[in-house]
Amino acid sequence: MQTALWRKSSYSQQESACVEVAVSEEIGVRDTKNREAGQLTVSREAWQGVLAALQAKH
Description:
By secondary structure, the protein is of the alpha+beta class. The chain has one domain. It is 24% helix and 28% strand. A 4-stranded antiparallel sheet has the order 1-2-3-4. It is flat. The N and C termini lie far apart (30 Å). It comes from Amycolatopsis carbonis. InterPro entries: DUF397 (IPR007278). This is DUF397 domain-containing protein.
């Protein structure tokens, strides 16, 4: 994920939690304010499940 383009969530606000996502062969998720802590990497299929679950809640 080193060369992946990280994008900050449009829902992130200056003073609250911020999330960045990188789309590559896999999906990377990390904390914008603590990038050194690492990242969570999941398959595209798993990420689609996360998004589907979030959409179902709204």
